[in-house]
Amino acid sequence: MEEPGGFQSVDLPLDQRVADLMNRLTLAEKVALLHQHQAPVPRLGMGAFHTGTEALHGLAWLGPATVFPQAIGLASTWNPDLVERVGDAVGDEARGFHHKNPDRGGLNVWAPVVNLLRDPRWGRNEEGYSEDPLLTGVLATAYARGLRGDHPRVLKTAPTLKHFLAYNNETRRESTSSGMPPRVLREYELPAFEAPIRAGAAVAVMASYNLVNGRPAHLSPLLHDELRGWSEHDIVVVSDAQAPSNVVDAQHYYPDHVSGHAALVRAGVDSFTDNGDHPTLTVERLTTALARGLLTEADVDAAVRRLLLLRFRLGEFDPPESHPYADVTEEVINCPEHQDLAVQAARQSIVLLRNDGMLPLTLSRRDRVAVVGPLADVLYEDWYSGTLPYATTVRGGLAARFDSPDAVRFAEGVDRIALRVAPGAGTAAGRYVTADGSAHGGPLTAGADCAGPDSWLDVHDWGHGVLALRCVCNGRYLTVDTGKALANESPRPGGWVVNETFELVERGGDTVLRHFASDRYVAIDPDGALRAVAASGAEATGFAVELVSDGILGAAAVAAEADIAVVVVGNHPLINGRETEDRADLSLPPDQDRLVRAVHAANPRCVLVVTSSYPYAIGWADEHVPAILWSAHGGQEFGRALADVLFGDTAPAGRLTQTWYRHAADLPDLLDYDIIASDATYLYFRGTPLYPFGHGLTYSPVEYDNLRLSSSTVEPDGEVRISLDVTNTGARATDEVVQLYTRQRTSRVKQPVRQLRGFRRLHLAPGERTTVHFGLAAAGLAFWDVTRQRAVVERAAHDILVGRSSADIRCAATLDVAGETIPPRRALDGTVCAADFDGYAGITLCDAGPERGDAVTSTEPGAWVCFDGTDFGDGAARCAAELSRLGSGPAGITLRLDDPLDGPVIGQVTAACRAGRYEFVSAGTPLRGAAGVRDLYAVFDAPGVTLRSLSFRAGK
User: d(Cα 202, Cα 78) in Å, to the nearest integer?
Assistant: First the structure.
């Protein structure tokens, strides 16, 4: 090994230490650092290093660790201080695992997720914080700040934001493109990422699987042009798993992996998460790219320098005596302090959606409580949660409050069935499917003459026909093993591929069983074994489904005998809405919906608890059930926290961070990312939601009054101070979340209905009155002016709105902002980029070239883009358009004024295009009547035509 170098001296400036180490590395050694699993360099004393420890709401995939509420649950606290404390605890546990096993416990943590919850059908909804960019940015900054620690030199962990950019759908995620008009990009998507980076809380970013405007997000010019300009430190960019190969395999953006990998490095990707923990292919491709001249050593050095800076900032090359986290050991993992923090986080995350006065509960020791529902006595892990060290369920949390074991009665509310082989199945006909009753289970057979516990299956309905079947004899779930045999061996549904889900499909007079993961049907072998091997229902073995016990009737009977019924429903985080799979709608699973109705009918003194990763459309329950609470999956202490809220030991004060819609019909297409045009999220939605953004009730009335502004006017670079008084007029202590919104009254463009500008969570004793202060910078009211490609504060009056939610405004005032008036778009001043439109129909945003630039492509005849208020001056004589199309041939647009259908035609452009969408041809047309300020429409003659720009010339 070489003598220790200057890179090991903590007294040298960081840049000098990195430069010293860089100078000692060979080119081959540097290339080997560009994979997720960085190779050691023994001669320099450099150990192995890997990026990527999942730390979304606790540490995942490392073994038991403290499990906090899901990210959407943490966000529902609206408490940045608490969220930072959770991040701090997770960072400590990451250091603890690293101390225990450095090879597994990596310090580059992949959290938080800052993708905006634009659409509640997103399969990964529970991973994000909010549909609002400000709230997301504040909470992401808090969590990342906790993860990174507060030491001025050494990072506790290196937080990595996920997933850049415009990523909010799962189905076909690696091949779908998110259309990002400039305003949506600048006002909505980028701010959520910018806040934690500009604050210095996050030090890395993961690129997303999808394409943005037709270009893979991993190749986005925004990595260099925007993201890295937000920080004084070098921001590391890591790829998502297998995404580097997707650039060729799934997205077909480059012809081979060598050119694709080279383009990724040039675009700013530093670390390749590809081919698992085997870096050989990545190294070979990058080495070949260097040999071909597609990459330079300077390109490699730029990426390696950023990666090494990260490792230095984590203290890797510092001596133990100068390391502030050297004494953090595995003793911190799930320590009592973290368990207590998990309770606090779960309490504060619970949202009271509806309450007619039933809550808080007032029960005597003689009263009986029915706790029913498929989520009443279980806690589920999600893909990115840690392994639960213990589980306090709703049933357990409530039972702990009573002396008598009979005070809390439980019913799961699921049907119990037996499967009898239908006639025509050979020697197995008439026999019952039976399971191995041993603790770990075994293959199923069709061999019993009569039904008994070893043939009983509990049926869990997760919606859309997706069922999980649990064997009564050993409590394990049916799964399909590597030999395609059905076995009762799984402790729970789970894994990247969930093998524990089935569908019962009617087939004439019998029923067949379909295995979802393999899309195969169950057939019985001659030896009586059940295997998922049939390609169709016609080839499957038929069964008669015999009902052993009706779960809903049983739950209703238990509820009827109780003084109060608590029914707990929701989702399984790994089924019907998860990574790789979006939800089809917003409905509760049918059996759960029937359960809620039946329990309420049996006992109107009913509390509904929805535990889910996402919103549901529960309109019937909102009209009929007297009290409804919602929580994300709340972690290891959820049952205890819920009991505290139900009985009033803790006043609920969680608030929704996304809109709960009444119907999926209220939502645009899942792939429509233009929230402005589609009236999506609370910012633009003009309907009446089931529960609005920011909604959440409390047990104590709170009054808002005396709203005052430090000034009724403000300059574009000024700030106004806002204050109001908030009073708890009730007899209970409570937390309150005071929310500040603004609404711009007039504008050149479509503005939000209202927009969150600040919030405060505060604790109020009974009768306490306090003054809440906000600062509102006029610069924060800016929007993106597409006519001049910059942010602008417009001259306008703004409503200042303060209340308990976006729809429950208690105080209002008016602020006049002395901004600028946006002039008409001057056609003769330069090129008009097609993507800088004001309106459109029948087009999609696309890439104008592999590396940078946007354009628009028509998807139907008569498609158009509009440029409002275009100033042609005294007259424009000629227009040139840059056009292309996929195949060779003519491509044309018609230029109209005022209306795309029957407005006056001022010119028609036809270009003789060469094959290839990037082969733009400039073609011109004389103009007639293009004078003054008019709305300009470019109308496409046919689908498949791409327009990059328009330019106008005066004269004759």
Answer: 20
User: What is the Cα–Cα distance from 755 to 744, expressed in whole angstroms?
Assistant: 9
Is the residue at 689 inside a domain? no
Q: CB of 135 within 8 A of CB of 150?
A: no
Q: Does residue 131 share a domain with residue 239? A: yes
Statement to judge: residues 261 and 400 lie in one domain: no
The domain boundary residue, chosen from 623, 647, 666:
666
Q: Classify residue 337: in a domain, yes or no.
A: no
Burial class (CB in 10 A: 0-12, 13-18, 19+), 573: buried
Local structure of residue 189 (DSSP, 8 states): I
Length of the chain: 956
Same domain, 713 and 648: no
903/772 same-domain check: no
Say how far apart CA 661 and CA 614 lie, in whole Å.
11
Conformation bin of residue 495: beta by default, left when phi > 0, alpha when psi is -120 to 50: left
| Closest to 431 in 3D by CA, of 420, 444, 443 | 420
Q: How far is CA 30 from the centre of its chain?
A: 34
CB 401 within 8 A of CB 430: no
Element (H, E) at 734: strand 734-744
**Interatomic CA distance for residues 180 and 176, integer angstroms:** 13
Q: What is the DSSP string of 613-635?
A: SS----HHHHHH-SEEEEE----
Write the DSSP symbol of residue 721.
Answer: E
The stretches of 236-296 forming alpha helices (DSSP H) are: 243-249, 257-267, 280-292
pLDDT value at residue 451: 87
| Partners of 578 in beta bridges | 581
Q: What long-range pairs does 426-431 form, CB within 8 A, spacing at least 24?
A: 426/524, 426/526, 427/526, 427/528, 428/524, 428/528, 428/541, 431/528
Tokens for 561? Answer: 């005998």
Residue 478: its pLDDT value, please? 97
Radius of gyration of the chain (CA): 30
314 φ, ψ (degrees, to nearest 5): -80, 0
Q: What pLDDT is recorded for position 443? A: 95
- The alpha carbon of 120 is separated from its chain's Cα centroid by a whole number of angstroms, namely 9
CB neighbour list of residue 346: distance below 8 Å, 6 or more residues apart: 68, 69, 73, 631, 634, 635, 637, 638, 640, 641, 642
User: In which residue ranges of the chain is pLDDT below 70?
Assistant: 1-5, 956
Smallest Cα–Cα separation from 798: which of 759, 739, 738, 752? 752
- Overall domain count for the chain: 5
What tokens appear for 690 in the block? 């089931």
Task: Report if residue 686 sits inside a domain.
Answer: no
Print burial letters for 135-172: b (CB count within 10 Å at least 16), e (below 16).
Answer: bbbbbbbbbbbbbbbeeeebbbbbbbbbbbbbbbbbbe
Query: Residue 338: which of 56, 644, 86, 98 has the closest Cα?
Result: 86
Residues 160 and 251 in one domain: yes
Considering the domain architecture, whether residues 799 and 743 belong to the same structural domain is answered as yes
Q: What CATH number should be reported for the domain holding residue 924? A: 2.60.120.260
Interacting residues of 623 by C-beta distance below 8 A, sequence separation 6+? none
**Domain-terminating residue out of 499, 514, 541:** 541
Residue 673 lies in a domain: no
Q: Smallest Cα–Cα separation from 246: which of 237, 235, 254? A: 254
Phi–psi pair at 610, nearest 5 degrees: -100, 120
Residue 170 contacts residue 124 (beta carbons within 8 Å)? yes
Same domain, 394 and 453: no
Residues 6+ apart with CB under 8 A from 338: 66, 89, 92, 93, 332
Task: Give the CATH number for residue 776.
Answer: 2.60.40.10
Residue span of the structural domain in which 861 resides: 825-954
Pair (162, 59) in one structural domain: yes
What is the end-to-end Cα distance of the chain in Å, rounded?
Answer: 77
Instruction: Give the chain's largest Cα–Cα span.
Output: 96
